[in-house]
């Protein structure tokens, strides 16, 4: 072969081989120090919050010489699509966030590091609520630092309550009251929706679980579906009647997680099930008026689905990286007055401060200090959330069922049926869903 | 690229070529009955309806009625939605939700476009998408042209088997193998590369395109071997034959392949959704989908308008190549 | 086979090129050719051929991508077959394909026949019909999502203003699937129209003249000349259409999330759910993929058969 021929082959195959450059991580240590990557930097669309984060990173690096922190800002921060692949491909950050739904899965698949010996690096670890800590503990070993913990309540639009002649300081406490209030709001006409609900995209089943828990029902007991019960039937029946008798749930089936909050933010929807962070999102992302939105305990209040997240550490991290990672978690997320608990700065930046969106520290000294700081610097009308706080102490927290996403997909069918078909046969729908759910649960 | 003598190889003979080329000479026209009303009925390739039928009183009437109907329906079905998209973007939040809707925005608001640009971060998205599209174009062209040339002109052992295996991939659309392809991209066998969030996750699979190779090879096949043999006797190495002889006469087909690759990358949704999840690396389509839930209806429409513009520009300028490519593919049977 | 030739002593390099022996030339051509081919072989092997094989392997495995995959026999297939949405997904996919064939196969052909008769505004009509094909699908889908809105949607407004009852579109089990088909047809049919148009223009005019002389009316001419003359293209497009509609994804993903009541779950959508929503069940997703592959190969085989018969 002629040298020039060879040259062209090299060019052609060289194109292919240049790809090597993009593989592998560049976690080289600068001057004997240690570099960690941390997830969940705020998005560019929130420049002030992002700046605050970047300032925190600088402050942290200053306090811990030799440690370099690199942030990633994937939105959403936890993406179930790519989670497994990122771990497998070594692209996972040193510090990453996992929602409560996925704790068991991540721990079982050994995708998080055992940090039992180093929890003391997070100084206030012991002040985190016991039940939150239990969730990240398996066989006596700790796999994460709980970061957020809340239970679902009823978010409502106070302005609409007033407009419809309802008392915004006495929000509904039972599902019958919810239905009556919803009807009054819908009767305002002009596209008003009394009670917004999801009907697909797995969020329908998710809200079914929230509703059935509130009525004291169960999703799964001893590995068997338990939602074909009087409580489950009541959930669907109420929703059906609200849709077809009162016409108070709107005619559009909502499928995306954001769609309901968007509708809420537009100001024509009276109520929805949601955690306190819904209030934050409605106000911050969907331009709802701060003073209009309140939250109260979930109707009936027998039990409530808990949500939350924990920070975990990459199983491939070495000892030095783990140490730096824990120090970061300590500094940024668990020190009152610092990092995310710097509420004075948050208020100055126009963040919605004051929503009781996180009680992971409970009544512990640290928890009380956080609440104090949050209330002092509140930019939101905290009195609008008081009934939620009062109720939350009495409500029993409930974990999501096993195989949550698959069960939610099954229950989407029932939810969408009652919302789209007047002649939906509720008994039949629940019986079908039960059979399907048992098959899924039996697969272990 | 517009040299029609070559497009003949790739296109159905009379499709995209201008009708003007086929207008019958005036002499023929004047010989027929000089009825001014239906002079247009002649001078067109013979189709189902004969010119004579068209020229009859009723034929003419029906023709105009059909033409008017087709024009109206097509405009309503294919243009009006786009008009609605553009005007919808310029309506205010209340106006867009109003019933009955307004045909033209009361106070056209152009600032929504810059809002949408900001909210969707279209600058980054567009830049990413362009980068992926142009990279894919160059890479796929380099890979596919060399391969098609080898298969067509150098005809190595097992060449036909290789071509067959490449064409067989056309039977299985990429979406069917999305899971193993995705897993492969996260950890490329042998090499151990991890291509998540890397442009190569787009470029490699795009280059593995049996259809491009098929088109190129068929075009190369139509180039007489004699030219190449003469070159070989003169001692011109194969790569120079490719660069200085084959490529210049292959411009039409290269145009077709180029446009198709670029358009494909621009339009793709599921694959970039999977392999480019980082918000800094996303493509335009995926970015629109991710953010659409969080902005208002008129902002969504503004985002869609902006996202459509690059493709419409491409269509304006490369209409010929695009249509030629369409028919080229279909006539292989 | 050519090793012998290679090992024979080579002349130090001929002063003036003589055509090398046939064998030598063959060896050299082969080396050159594979040099040119290597990049393509690399891409195809890793990103086209290997995924197909791997699909089959993965359908018998359970993997979390970190630990070594485990062989689980037919478990994955059992999982998907027992999935309540499985039957529905196939039913929907087939229904979608069928509806899309009516809308996206018959209509474009009819449109092309009419277009081919027109003597005016052809460039405009061709441009316009292909315009939606150029748009990124996400644009068409989000645009139609707004049109379908039961509140301020364009479609219900139009229905209402001409005195027809409004529809629930995406929000009813009766109309959701057909609504998806409409979007899909709108954004794809331009390609079909143009391909048929090209085929129609290739029909020799004297065939029509002959038919006309035999006294055939316009519809008879279509049936006896146009259809037989374009039969090959029609067959090919039939297969392409089926292959295309077997992979519906973006429409249910963006518009309905598979609902209401699973009315719009397609096989591709279900695959995606398994692998990327239900906590990474790649094995079950691959099992579905294998089934889709088999169906598509069967379609291809039938097509090949028909084309061959047709050509004879």
Automatic annotation (TrEMBL), chain A:
Superkingdom of origin: Bacteria
Pfam family, one: SBP_bac_1
Signal peptide residue numbers: 1-21
Species of provenance: Streptomyces polyasparticus
Transmembrane parts of this sequence: none
Keyword Signal found: yes
Gene3D superfamilies per the UniProt record, alphabetical: Periplasmic binding protein-like II
Record keywords: Signal
Lineage: Bacteria, Bacillati, Actinomycetota, Actinomycetes, Kitasatosporales
InterPro entries: Bact_solute-bd_prot1, SBP
The keyword Signal belongs to this UniProt entry's keyword annotation: yes
UniProt-recorded name of the protein: Extracellular solute-binding protein
UniProtKB/TrEMBL annotation, chain C:
Positions of region (Disordered): 1-24
Homology family: Belongs to the binding-protein-dependent transport system permease family.
Key word Transmembrane helix present: yes
Organism for this UniProt entry: Streptomyces polyasparticus
PANTHER family, per database record: ABC TRANSPORTER PERMEASE PROTEIN (PTHR30193), DIACETYLCHITOBIOSE UPTAKE SYSTEM PERMEASE PROTEIN NGCF (PTHR30193:SF41)
UniProtKB keywords: Cell membrane, Membrane, Transmembrane, Transmembrane helix, Transport
Location of this chain's protein in the cell: Cell membrane
Protein's membrane topology: Multi-pass membrane protein
InterPro entries tied to this protein: ABC_transporter_permease (IPR051393), MetI-like (IPR000515), MetI-like_sf (IPR035906)
Membrane-spanning intervals of the chain: 31-50, 94-115, 127-148, 177-199, 232-250, 286-306
Domain ABC transmembrane type-1: 90-303
First-listed, main subcellular location of the protein, grouped into a coarse class: membrane
Pfam families cross-referenced by the UniProt entry: BPD_transp_1
Keyword Transmembrane helix recorded: yes
CDD domains attached to this UniProt entry: TM_PBP2
Name of this protein: Sugar ABC transporter permease
Biased composition (Basic residues): 10-24
């Amino acid at each position: 072969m002629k040298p020039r021929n060879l040259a062209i082959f090299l060019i052609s195959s060289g194109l292919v081989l240049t790809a090597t450059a993009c593989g592998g991580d560049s976690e080289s240590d600068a001057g004997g120090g240690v570099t960690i990557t941390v997830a969940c930097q705020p998005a560019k669309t929130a420049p002030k919050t992002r700046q605050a984060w970047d300032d925190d990173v600088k402050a942290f690096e200053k306090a811990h010489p030799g440690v370099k922190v690199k942030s990633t800002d994937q939105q959403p921060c936890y993406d179930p699509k790519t989670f497994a692949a990122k771990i497998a491909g070594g692209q996972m950050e040193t510090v990453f966030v996992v929602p409560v739904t996925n704790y068991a899965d991540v721990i079982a698949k050994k995708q998080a590091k055992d940090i039992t010996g180093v929890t003391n690096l997070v100084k206030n670890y012991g002040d985190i609520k016991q039940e939150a800590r239990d969730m990240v503990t398996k066989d006596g070993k700790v796999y994460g630092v709980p970061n957020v913990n809340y239970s679902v309540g009823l978010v409502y639009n106070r302005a609409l309550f007033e407009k419809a002649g309802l008392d915004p300081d006495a929000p509904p406490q039972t599902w019958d009251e919810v239905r009556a209030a919803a009807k009054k709001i819908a009767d305002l006409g002009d596209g008003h929706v009394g009670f917004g609900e999801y009907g697909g995209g797995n969020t329908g089943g998710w809200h079914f679980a929230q509703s059935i828990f509130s009525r004291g029902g169960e999703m799964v007991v001893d590995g068997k579906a338990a939602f074909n019960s009087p409580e489950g039937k009541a959930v669907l029946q109420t929703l059906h009647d609200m849709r077809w008798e009162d016409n108070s749930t709107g005619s559009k089936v909502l499928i995306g997680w954001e769609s309901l909050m968007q509708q809420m933010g537009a100001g024509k929807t009276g109520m929805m099930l949601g955690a306190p962070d819904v209030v934050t999102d409605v106000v911050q992302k969907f331009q709802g008026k701060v003073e209009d939105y309140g939250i109260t305990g979930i109707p009936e209040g027998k039990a409530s689905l808990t949500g939350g997240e924990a920070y975990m550490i990459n199983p491939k991290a070495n000892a030095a990286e783990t140490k730096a990672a824990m120090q970061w978690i300590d500094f940024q997320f668990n020190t009152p007055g610092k990092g995310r608990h710097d509420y004075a700065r948050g208020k100055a930046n126009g963040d919605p401060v004051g929503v009781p969106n996180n009680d992971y520290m409970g009544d512990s000294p640290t928890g009380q200090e956080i609440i104090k700081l949050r209330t002092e610097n509140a930019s939101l009308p905290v009195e609008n959330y008081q009934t939620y706080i009062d109720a939350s102490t009495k409500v029993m927290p409930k974990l999501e069922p096993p195989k949550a996403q698959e069960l939610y997909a099954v229950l989407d069918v029932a939810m969408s049926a009652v919302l789209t078909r007047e002649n939906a046969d509720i008994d039949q729908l629940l019986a079908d869903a039960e059979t399907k759910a048992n098959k899924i649960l039996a697969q272990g | 690229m517009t040299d029609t003598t070559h497009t003949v190889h790739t296109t159905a003979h009379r499709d995209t070529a201008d009708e003007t080329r086929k207008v019958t000479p005036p002499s023929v026209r004047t010989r027929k009955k000089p009825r001014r009303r239906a002079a247009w009925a002649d001078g067109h390739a013979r189709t189902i309806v004969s010119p004579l039928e068209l020229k009859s009183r009723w034929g003419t009437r029906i023709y105009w009625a059909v033409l008017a109907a087709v024009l109206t329906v097509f405009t309503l079905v294919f243009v009006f939605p786009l008009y609605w998209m553009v005007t919808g973007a310029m309506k205010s939040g209340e106006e867009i939700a109003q019933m009955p809707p307004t045909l033209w925005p009361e106070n056209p608001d152009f600032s929504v476009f810059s809002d949408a640009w900001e909210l969707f971060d279209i600058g980054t998205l567009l830049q990413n998408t362009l980068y992926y599209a142009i990279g894919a174009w160059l890479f796929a062209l380099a890979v596919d042209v060399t391969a098609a040339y080898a298969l067509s002109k150098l005809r190595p052992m097992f060449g036909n088997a290789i071509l067959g295996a490449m064409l067989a991939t056309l039977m299985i659309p990429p979406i069917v193998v999305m899971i193993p392809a995705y897993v492969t991209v996260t950890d490329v066998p042998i090499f151990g590369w991890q291509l998540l969030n890397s442009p190569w996750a787009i470029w490699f699979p795009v280059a593995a395109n049996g259809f491009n190779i098929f088109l190129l090879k068929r075009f190369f096949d139509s180039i007489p071997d004699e030219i190449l043999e003469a070159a070989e006797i003169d001692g011109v190495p194969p790569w120079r034959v490719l660069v200085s002889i084959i490529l210049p006469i292959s411009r039409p087909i290269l145009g077709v392949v180029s446009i198709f690759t670029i358009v494909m990358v621009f339009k793709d949704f599921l694959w970039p959704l999977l392999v480019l999840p980082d918000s800094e690396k996303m493509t335009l389509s995926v970015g629109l989908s991710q953010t659409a839930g969080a902005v208002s209806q008129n902002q969504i429409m503004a985002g869609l308008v902006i996202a459509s513009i690059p493709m419409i520009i491409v269509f304006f300028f490369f209409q010929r190549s695009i249509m030629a490519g369409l028919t080229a593919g279909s006539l292989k049977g | 086979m050519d090793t012998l030739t290679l090992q024979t002593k080579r002349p130090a390099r001929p002063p003036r090129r003589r055509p090398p022996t046939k064998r030598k030339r063959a060896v050299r051509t082969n080396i050159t050719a594979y040099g040119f081919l290597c990049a393509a072989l690399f891409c195809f092997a890793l990103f086209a051929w290997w995924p197909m094989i791997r699909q089959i392997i993965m359908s018998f495995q359970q993997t979390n991508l970190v630990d070594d995959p485990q062989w689980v026999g037919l478990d994955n297939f059992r999982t998907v077959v027992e999935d309540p949405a499985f039957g529905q997904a196939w039913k929907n996919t087939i229904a979608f394909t069928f509806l899309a064939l009516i809308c996206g196969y018959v209509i474009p052909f009819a449109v092309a026949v009419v277009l081919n008769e027109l003597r005016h505004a052809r460039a405009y009509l061709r441009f316009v019909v292909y315009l939606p094909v150029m748009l990124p699908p996400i644009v068409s889908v989000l645009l139609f999502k707004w049109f379908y809105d039961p509140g301020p949607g364009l479609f219900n407004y139009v229905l209402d203003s001409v005195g027809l009852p409004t529809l629930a579109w995406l929000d009813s089990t009766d109309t959701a699937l057909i609504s998806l088909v409409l979007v899909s047809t709108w954004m794809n049919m331009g390609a079909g129209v143009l391909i048929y148009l090209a085929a129609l223009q290739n029909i020799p005019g004297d065939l029509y003249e002959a038919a006309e002389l035999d006294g055939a009316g316009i519809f008879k001419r279509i049936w006896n000349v146009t259809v037989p003359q374009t039969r090959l293209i029609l067959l090919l497009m039939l297969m392409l259409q089926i292959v295309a509609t077997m992979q519906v994804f973006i429409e249910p993903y963006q518009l309905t999330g598979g609902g209401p009541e699973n009315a719009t779950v397609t096989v591709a959508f279900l695959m995606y759910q398994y692998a990327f929503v239900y906590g990474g069940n790649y094995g079950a997703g691959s099992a579905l993929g294998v089934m889709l592959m088999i169906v598509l190969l069967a379609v291809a085989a039938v097509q090949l058969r028909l084309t061959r018969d047709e050509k004879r």
